[in-house]
Amino acid sequence: MDKTKFRSMLQGVLVLAAIALCSGLLLGFFNMITYVDPLQSAYDRFSEDTGATFSKMTDAEGQTIGDGKVVYYAVSDDGQVHAFLAEGKGFQGGTVQVYLYVQDGVISKAGYGEVDTSQTYIDRVKDAKLLESFVGSEVSSLNALSADTVSGATGSSKGVLNAVNAAVEYYKEHVGGENNG
Amino acid sequence: MDKRKIKETLLGGLIKNNPTFVLVLGTCPTIAMTTSLFQAFAMGVATTFVLIFSNLFVSLLRGVIPDKVRIPCYIVIISTFVIIVQMVMRRFLPELYTTMQAFIALIVVNCIILARAESFASCNKPLYSMLDGVSMGLGFTCALCLIGIVREFFAGGSFAGFAIPGFPVMQGAGASAFGFITFGCMMALFNFVMQKINERKERIKRSVLPLADQLEEVK
Prior knowledge:
The structure holds two protein chains of two kinds. Chain A is an alpha+beta fold. Chain A has helices at about 5-35, 40-50, 120-125, 155-175; strands at about 55-60, 65, 70-75, 80-90, 95-105, 105-115. Chain A is elongated. By secondary structure, chain B is an all-alpha fold. Chain B has one domain. In chain B, about 75% of the residues lie in helices and about 0% in strands. Chain B has helices at about 5-15, 25-30, 35-60, 70-90, 95-105, 110-120, 125-155, 175-219, and strands at about 160, 160-165. In chain B, helix 3 (about 35-60) crosses helix 4 and helix 3 (about 35-60) runs parallel beside helix 6. The two termini of chain B are about 30 Å apart. The interface of A and B includes residues 15, 23, 27 and 117 of A.
């Protein structure tokens, strides 16, 4: 290979590598400043939604149930509120996160968390108040997967239903179902 | 420091070389992010930030970056600042970030930024390059906001999120097709006004010229 050509090629690669390295360092610094601890973020949202205090996560590992997953589960310090952050697989496998709160065996409140960008019709699901329709339901007798999906947004609706189902089944299994609820 | 060049650079992006209405660059975010004034403004500010810093760094490194790898280098620099914008928005404006995240990431390939890096910052001093970024960014933000005001007014019957009572909402005005029509109409209006201003300037210049000639003769 021509020596001059090799030198110019090497110079190009080195400059590009140096710029990429500096860029990485700068991004690392900004990541340190702007990093949001997902666990702390969940605590904050639980407290904000319910007004109760949550000082420790009962289950920070979570559990996969069907096409849904309980990401975090916590009980309020007074033991009254069971808070869930659950996610469900929706359109093209993208996820929909929901916050679900259970008080005395009844869903007391529900709200949306992060929604994958692939769920382009999630606004239709939100407008149809699919998640809100579960508020007031008895957990022990609830079958979230049998609920009707929103027309024109079936995939995203399934994401919501899978998330609610994961939280409900987790509650039945670990906290209180038909027998001990 | 050349004051005239500073003035030209600052006003160039705002009016004479407005990236949206004159250069017709960045059409994708112009259509996608102008459904409301707030979104348009946020997109404009994010793009301005990236423009200023990418221009500055491209200009600072213009003597170091070899010609053959200049485009990959520009892309690395631009994407670094786009990721910083993403991180900051995600931390401090999570709701806005959720609605805009796909388009914020696409700033990397926004042709305004790449065009300014290639045509201006790579051959000008850092200060002028930064000023060019400010000017182009402000021009882009103003254009987006103007289109955003019109689209939000027709599609939602509101201004900056505040409902205007009694105004009937136009069905379909939020669609991209209406966005293109609004964009086209505003571009035509902008260029028409600019043409009239230039013609007026020419007329004034011509009326003043005989006096200038006389002055030359006296001298």
